[in-house]
Amino acid sequence: MMQFNPDNRGHFGVFGGRYVAETLMPALLELEQVYRDAARDPAFRAEYERLLRDYVGRPSPLYHAERLSAVYGAKVYLKREDLNHTGAHKVNNTLGQALLARRMGKRRLMAETGAGQHGVATATMAARFGMECVVYMGEEDIRRQAPNVQRMRLLGAEVVCVTSGTRTLKDAMSEAMRAWVSEVRNTFYVIGTVAGPHPYPEMVRDFQRVIGDETRRQILDMEGRLPDMVLACVGGGSNAAGMFTAFLDDTNVRLVGVEAGGLGLETGKHAASIAAGQVGILHGSRTYVLQEPNGQILNAHSVSAGLDYPGVGPQLALWADAHRVEYAPITDREAMAAFHELSRLEGILPALESAHAVAEARKRASALGPEGMMVVNLSGRGDKDLDTVLNYEPI
Amino acid sequence: MNRFEQLFEKVRKESRKALVGYLTAGDPDDAASLEVLRTAVRSGVDILEIGVPFSDPTADGPVIQAAACRALANGFDLRRILAMVSALRRETEVPVVLFGYANPFYRFGYDALCSEARAAGVDGLLVVDMPLEESDEFRAAAGREGLCWIPLIAPTTPPERARAILEVAGGFVYYIMVTGVTGERHEMAADVAEQVRAIRRLTPLPIAVGFGVSNGAQARQAGKSADAVVVGSALVRAAHDGKLEPLVRELRSALTN
Fold first, then answer.
1. Residues from chain B contacting residue A185 (CB–CB below 8 Å)
2. What CATH code is assigned to B18-256?
3. The dihedral sign for the CA sequence A156, A129, A55, A103
4. Measured between alpha carbons, how far is A306 from A309 in angstroms, rounded to an integer?
5. pTM score > 0.90 for this model?
6. What's the pLDDT tens digit per position in A306-334?
7. Catalytic: B129?
8. What does the domain layout of chain B look like in residue ranges?
9. Which of A19, A184, A296 comes nearest B129 by C-beta?
10. Nearest C-alpha of chain B: how many angstroms from A380?
11. What rounded mean pLDDT belongs to chain A?
């Protein structure tokens, strides 16, 4: 069995760690301690699980997509995270972190967001627990994910427009970290993915692993065996980490992480940190990063705001180096085609992020054949992307 | 005696406080930046913190972010920054700290960087996003080249943690007076003297205080309990506006007597 848990300083092999300013270190050490205590506290677990059931609507269905299967040529199951309250997997994590914030006596939540799904999920929890909420979002993402901005505001959150850099997720995260340094004493920073400094990558994975744990039980109930392949899209990597963790020891299950290939890797306009990045240090951890040879961070590109990030969670980097997870890039155009195909064949509008995983499933299905079985994590719904889809003009 | 020790001995004899000046390397271009550094030293900066620009400066406020953007617009090469240090070193014995974020140093290679930095005349390193727990490898490389590892202590750092940080520190200690990013502020933190006294009980190293100091009056107040005062954003802004010399003179004079 391969060992994929971090050491006591949050290192996943050579990846991870806590590369932050000293001002934040005591807060991270405190958070780690609070998290360890909470994870051992049956009352905390019970409340988390109760709210996952009654408020989020879990378990989410595992759905046999018959018409998609017929076209793709293998048996395709979709894990319906899009049916969660707030429309994506992000809420599994924000619920957990909001409970931690309450445990620490913090009355204010802060988050960065790209597609806005994490921002909405954080704003939702702030409303649910009576907390203040501020969400940092790049100006470009505010434009392309306008419905989610409106949702956050309706939920009572303040959305701060970030105008530095490319005005997307990377810059929103940098700005959130700056704000956190200033407000660290009274604000809980809800990171939305398995990136950032320790303990976030481990903690977010733990809050998201319900996806894979459910899937594993559901597929065994329905099929009496494990799938041949499990696919998930990878931006920072939270839905992939949540899905894959349950299958890491099932070495006969192929795990495929799908990165955003943007306009194609050869164009340099993409967000495929594992396929085309080098090891570096960004936003608190050592991991694969899109960067110039001299260490300046490059701008990512993806049609999908949630994947538009030049780094990736450290455990996903370790899984790559350990050859436990394969990674493949899907271009904007391929993701867009998968969006339309899934909409027409199954009546499901997927998030553009999730459409990347669907597109990769299409490529790999025929090799598995009709007896083959794959699970695609449908991490979110596509309502937020209608503007992008309707205005998309392939280059 | 290293250059920090010499400098602090001299400053003590003159019964004044040292002025530590941060300036972003390559802002707005290499030639102008070298002139800015020369002006800073000539006008009275005692220790130079040469900022290595980074695309994602998560601990910096708007002034230093903008300076980094201007510098990066000309392309980035750590060797060009080291060449600036070499040029300065031929003219002055002012202690030089290379001040930056981890990734450009990591990509360059810690060993190569420390060896080339030492050869160029760098005296110390300050890596903003590399806390004690992540610094073993880089610190060891710095130690082999005789470079001082200058630590940050924050208002949020508890005493037992400060003790561990100070055990591996060299040159001087940088106490961040406020929880926040770099940048000028109207009001100074109230409990600085108390915090500085607490650090002094843990280390014989000189203590510099910084974050938020932008004029002579603030520098004098901040310097009361410390051995040195760091000024960053205000100098970067003044250099950009062509008003560096009068500001440095004001700060230097405020820290004398």
1. 156, 179
2. 3.20.20.70
3. positive
4. 8
5. yes
6. 999 999 999 999 999 999 999 999 999 99
7. no
8. 18-256
9. A19
10. 29
11. 96
